[in-house]
Amino acid sequence: MLSELWSRAGGRINLFSGTEFPADPDAGLTGFIDFLIGLGPQLSRVSTPFVVVFEAKRDNIAEGYGQCIAAAVGAQRFNQRTGRPVETIYGCVTTGINWKFLRLEGNRVTFDMPEYTIQQPNRLLGLLAHMIGLPPAPAVAA
User: I need a surface site. Which of 37, 63, 69, 102 has the fewest CB within 10 A?
Assistant: First the structure.
């Protein structure tokens, strides 16, 4: 799914996987993230993240929430520390088949009620594109 997002974005996003993320070293908020997606060209270093994606633990979406929320808080602090605050940080926990989205605004976390599946690829791509600020893909004629 993320490789398709990368392809559709035409180089307008940066994507990191398994990268150490120094969110707020002074607060001990550092660690490795599963995936981090930001708007802008691919860089060799992490810059202004917008979406954090984590793999579910033992195929249990709920077990990934804590790690995803911690990374969203880290992204929020990273943005503030680098002088590029972003009002809303989005996150996602996925098994690869099932996808659950959340957002962090200030200190409030909100969960998207539906759980999406890989059988909804256009919906998933649309959600991910929206979260990083990509314009919607043109509709395909039926």
Answer: 63
* Cross-strand partners of 16: 36
What is the distance between the alpha carbons of residues 62 and 138, in angstroms, rounded to a whole number? Answer: 34
Coil, helix or strand at residue 87 = coil
Residues 87 and 92: their CA atoms lie apart, in Å, by 17
Is beta strand 88-94 parallel, antiparallel or unpaired with respect to 51-55? parallel
What token pair was written down for 62? 């709920």
Q: What are the structure tokens assigned to 131, written together?
A: 């979260």
Domain 2-132 has what CATH class?
alpha beta
Residues 6+ away with beta carbon under 8 Å from 81: 24
User: Over the chain (142 residues), what is each successive 10-residue block's mean pLDDT?
Assistant: 86 84 85 83 69 84 91 88 86 93 95 94 90 68 48
Closest alpha carbon to 45 in 72, 68, 78: 78
Q: Contact 73/29 with Cβ under 8 angstroms? A: yes
